[in-house]
Each structure stands twice: as structure tokens, then as C-alpha cells.
Specification:
- With 70 residues, this protein is an alpha+beta fold.
- Helix content is 46%, strand content 31%.
- It is built from 1 helix and 3 strands; from the N terminus they run βββα.
- A 3-stranded antiparallel sheet has the order 1-2-3, with no helix packed on it.
Length: 70
């Protein structure tokens, strides 16, 4: 996934692999803030994005755990 037209352009890479009777997803974000506002708020934005990503992954895990396997 690529976000290029934003004050915080980044690339997100997802990797899925078999792992101990389940599946392991690895997520890697690459990018950084641009312009003066981005540089000033970059640390705050990175922490907020990390928190939101953690919440999203927890919700995904809960949905997948609640879904019967076929």
C-alpha cells in the first residue's frame, strides 16, 4: 500500500506466512513527514499512527479469532 499525496507519505508492506498452526502477518511502514508542518509534528504523528495501527490489528485479530475456520 502506498500513500504519496499526503503530508506523511509512506509505504506499508504486509507479509503473510504460515506459523505454528496459524498465520503470521508482518507489517512494515516506511516513510516520513514532509514540509515544515510534517517535520514539526512528525513524532506526534508517528506515535498516533502506531497506536491506531495497534488498535486496527487487535480488531483484526479478534475478528479472525471469532471466525470459524473452514
Amino acid at each position: 500500500m502506498v500513500a504519496v499525496d499526503s503530508p506523511f507519505p509512506m509505504q506499508t508492506h504486509y507479509t503473510w506466512e504460515d506459523a505454528e498452526g496459524g498465520c503470521r502477518m508482518t507489517l512494515r511502514n516506511v516513510g516520513g513527514p514532509t514540509g515544515l508542518p510534517g517535520r514539526l509534528l512528525g513524532g506526534l504523528m508517528a506515535r498516533r499512527m502506531r497506536a491506531e495501527m495497534t488498535q486496527d490489528l487487535a480488531r483484526l485479530e479478534a475478528v479472525l479469532a471469532d471466525t470459524p475456520s473452514t
